[in-house]
Amino acid sequence: MDAVVSFDSASAPRRVIVRLPVSKSIINRLAIIYALSGRVDELECYAASSGDADVMLKALSRRSEVVDVGDSGTAMRFLMSYFSYMGRPVTLAGSRRLCQRPVADLADALTTLGAEIEFPCDDGYPPVRIVKGLRRCGGEVDFGKGIPSSQYVSSLMLIAPMLDEGMRIILPDITPSYPYIDMTARLMRRCGADVSSDGRSVSVLHSSYCLPESPKVEADWSAASFWYEFAAMHRDVTIVLPDLAEQSIQGDAAVVSLFGALGVETRWIDGQCVLHASCAAANHLDLCLEDVPDLVLPFVVACLSTATTFEISGIKHLRIKESDRIASLIDGASQLGFVLKWSGQSGTLSWDGSQCKRPRIPVVDARGDHRVAMVFALASSTFGPLKIIGMDSVNKSYPGFMSDINIAGFSTGIL
């Protein structure tokens, strides 16, 4: 579905209240934990919270020889470990883009633990066939040479308590998105697992999950980042996000300090998160955003809006997300009239203020990537009407996004 997104600043409200979706990162981890405990049906109420959650919960609830996870990289990685533990022969398939995202290192780790895994099409890439389950004794997995995703570690951590000897996972010197590993550990501890980490390795002892009667699922800080982007663009608007947790287990709560550099102030009033751009944005920023890759897109577009030049490092792994997000950012920014520069050698994205001619109505191809669609849809409030190709991709993480932006003063014309 394509859409033309525009914004009417004259009629837009100056105070916007947004009910964010629950965190799909938390739901997907709980889904594996509850499935291992035979209670996954208790999470069915969260299936509609995001496309990712729906895919995961359906995959865990049905007994199919072929499981299609669409474009959900999380489901692919977590289910590889889950089905290897269960010893259930299954083929995990996905979208064309998902089949371009590597899983070889995770497959090697599971093979080390005794699983037999095949790649029917392209070695090291989905689809993935689980032929034989792993040995349930557990053991050690060494990722010391590096991994492209923290989800490999989280995937193994989630099944580790069920193994007789637990598991020790050796981490590489640089682990992308490490806060997500920490979130997995904290969530597992809440569910009764014995998990420890010193930053160089993760150890999980054999134990049984002890589940709460009703799981507490926070609102999604990653989704909040789009409203931080909007707040940075509009100094006359206050955004209220009632459902966020101030003391959160989500790494993307770092959005508070990140957007503080662009002048967005975060206050907690009666338990509600309130955003307002009350300070001047920085003129230039040098940042490493390796730990928070999902914040890069809204932050970059907000920087363009506030004329904040930047150099952002540690983001090579953005090239193997739902889209090549570096290419998506460069192409989208050019449609807005800005020239971004990418150094593949250093993994650095920068903007020095350079501009280019922009079309009368910019066209941004989301490439099926929910975050690309959302960041550029919001950009229309500053840069004028935009055509977004693949606007429906937002359902992957934020099904209510289009309704929410309409409340904030946007109009979306479906093409």
TrEMBL record:
PROSITE patterns: EPSP_SYNTHASE_2. One of its GO terms (biological process) is aromatic amino acid family biosynthetic process. It holds the Pfam family EPSP_synthase. Signal peptide: none annotated. Pathway: Metabolic intermediate biosynthesis; chorismate biosynthesis; chorismate from D-erythrose 4-phosphate and phosphoenolpyruvate: step 6/7. InterPro entries: Enolpyruvate_Tfrase_dom, Enolpyruvate_Tfrase_sf, EPSP_synthase, EPSP_synthase_CS, RNA3'P_cycl/enolpyr_Trfase_a/b. GO terms for molecular function: 3-phosphoshikimate 1-carboxyvinyltransferase activity. Its EC number is 2.5.1.19. It catalyses: 3-phosphoshikimate + phosphoenolpyruvate = 5-O-(1-carboxyvinyl)-3-phosphoshikimate + phosphate. Keywords: Amino-acid biosynthesis, Aromatic amino acid biosynthesis, Transferase. Residues 63-403 form the Enolpyruvate transferase domain. Belongs to the EPSP synthase family. This is 3-phosphoshikimate 1-carboxyvinyltransferase.
